[in-house]
Amino acid sequence: MKKFNYTKLLLSAIAVLAFNACGNTNTNSNNNTSKPQVKTEINEDAPVITLQGDNPLYLQHGYRYNEPGATALDDVNGDVEVKASGEVDTFTIGTYYVTYTSKDFDGNVASVKRTVIVKPITYYGLRYKPLISPITGRIWLDRNTGASEVCTDDNYRDFDFPCHGDIYQWGRNTDGHQKPNSQTTTKKGQSITDSSDKFVIGHDDWTSDIHRSANWMATDGHAVCPVHYRVPTIQEWEQETSGYGEEIYQFEHFLKLGSSTIRYSDGSLDNFAGHDLAGFGIELWSSTASTHKSYIFNLFSGSVLEYRSKGYPVRCIQD
Fold first, then answer.
1. Domain spans of the chain?
2. Ranges 49-53, 219-223, 279-283: which has the least confidence
């Protein structure tokens, strides 16, 4: 019987395996190798822009514009940058447009416009204008609440109140009592909201409600000033008029403060426009209170405490 050399056969098999493992990939022409195909996806969709805030956006004449902003989302790139362009001049009534643009990493561009409409300041049927103080930079109404005209040399002496405005008891709302020809009553109001349209006479105060200062500091338009406006503090009055004297009477001051018409606690009226002394009779309420009285601004005397049942004009300042 023929004997096989098993040791030699085993070594030959190992050698063949080792040769193939070292990279021998000899194949015939019928066995082709193929590389994996990479599929390139083209992004042709622009980002989607979402505006924050209202569109159209309405603003009051002279009120500050705070940019609400916008966001943009791209299907491939995710959140992408948004740029805003355009100007809004809130001191000029009209319609403005702000354009928002976004561009993804593939160059796709999207844009959206916001319409901004600047509307007039209206309050109880009258239209007012904003004034920028050259002294403090604050914004005021151009005339007293209820006045149909800005005070000038030609109209401030008129007794029909074209530029003097309404005459308020301190802390009261615009409920009808402020008109110079309103009826009177001796019955005090129970609160700010529980009062008649009559001017309260015969008392040092027209009510005992403790919320009147806060009422006149409110800026929602429910009391005596348009939305975004309130009654100034006595300190704000003093800041705007420090160093002025005859100029206020002569309407060279930006507020054009003419002499006031006031109403006493007995219901009688006094129009200081008949006096010839420069600056005499410029008196207006502030929102600042003391224990039993409240402060008016008086050109000659500065801050003066007066009974709250008396009636004085009101000028409003923006919040």
1. 48-119, 124-319
2. 279-283
- Retrieve residue 15's tokens: 């050698």
Both structure tokens of 155: 């109209």
Question: Which CATH number is 48-119's, of 1.20.1250.20, 3.40.50.410, 3.40.109.10, 2.60.40.10?
Answer: 2.60.40.10
pTM of the model as a whole: 0.81
Q: Yes or no: say if 296 and 315 are a contact pair by the CB < 8 Å rule.
A: no
Q: Cβ distance 230 to 319 under 8 Å? A: yes
Query: Cα–Cα distance between 18 and 179 in angstroms, integer?
Result: 112
DSSP one-letter string for 37-56: PPPPPP--PPPEEEE-S-SS
At residue 80, the 3 state secondary structure works out as: strand
pLDDT tens sequence across 14-60? 333 343 444 444 444 445 555 555 545 678 899 999 999 999 999 99
| Contact of 205 with 224, CB cutoff 8 Å | no
Average pLDDT over residues 93-117: 97
Distance, first Cα to last Cα, the chain = 119
Cβ contact 265:204 at 8 Å: yes
Answer for the pair 80, 74: CB distance below 8 angstroms, yes or no: yes
Tokens 């009051």 -> residue: 60
